[in-house]
Design a protein that fits this description.
By secondary structure, the protein is α+β, with helices and mostly antiparallel strands. The chain has helices at residues 27-42, 44-49, 52-78, 119-124, 148-184, 189-212, and strands at 2-3, 15-20, 80-84, 87-95, 98-105, 109-115, 126-133, 140-146. The protein has a 5-stranded antiparallel sheet with strand order 1-5-4-3-2. It has a 3-stranded antiparallel sheet with strand order 6-7-8. Helix 1 runs antiparallel to helix 3.
Length: 213
């Protein structure tokens, strides 16, 4: 997990999908806030009879509930994840002044699983998305998001596209080597030996630079 407040798109990178948690995660909090407001107004007459401190308590409860609801929606908008054409970026913000960004490049994602369990998740179409990562002890799970099956399909498409792109690059590299070897076969023995000598010298120079760093 990377504690970072900066996020920038890389070269030739574009956002494919912006995903938020399902509204089901904020509904229970809104119900509690509504019940507190109702109770506060139910006791309004009694509180006002107590004098200035009763009025102050009535107003304070309203202000606290409003602050709580605003904070709830602020954090709801800040906790999300992005699917780009190169990676998945997860934004976690537990508070106003604390933020974490997790990045998962497609080559490191081995498998994607959509998990929908229970009556309510099935009815309201939300669930979890589990990313199985290469060289990692456990999966990374995105909780209570809308349409996890749709996102699973989208990410799998991006993974296949990334694999096809990597395969094309590898094929291009092989073709380039074949072309070079074809050209070398036309050279004389002395010219081939000179090429070998220069390649060995470049390798030695490269190792020397790495060692100096």
């Amino acid at each position: 997990m990377n504690k970072n407040n900066e996020f920038h798109l890389r070269e030739n990178e574009k956002i494919i999908e912006e995903v938020y948690h399902h509204l089901v995660i904020v509904v229970p909090h809104l119900i509690v806030a509504l019940l507190i407001i109702i109770l506060n107004f139910f006791l309004m007459y009694f509180l006002f009879l107590q004098g200035w401190w009763g009025v102050a308590l009535f107003v304070a409860v309203i202000l606290l509930v409003v602050f709580y609801v605003l904070r709830l929606f602020f954090l709801y908008r800040k906790n999300k994840f992005l699917i780009t054409n190169k990676r998945i970026v997860d934004f976690e913000q537990p508070g106003f002044f604390e933020k974490f960004i997790n990045e998962f490049p497609f080559p490191k994602i081995v498998e994607v699983k959509a998990i929908v369990k229970g009556v309510w998740p099935t009815i309201f179409r939300y669930g979890n998305l589990k990313l199985m990562l290469a060289e990692d002890l456990g999966p990374f799970e995105l909780y209570k998001i809308s349409n996890p099956a749709k996102l699973q399909y989208l990410i799998n498409e991006m993974l296949q596209s990334n694999e096809a792109s990597e395969a094309a690059k590898a094929s291009k590299c092989v073709d380039s080597i074949s072309m070079v070897m074809a050209e070398i076969s036309l050279l004389t023995t002395n010219e081939k030996e000179e090429i070998i000598r220069r390649i060995e010298q470049q390798l030695l120079d490269g190792r020397g630079k790495v060692g100096a760093e």
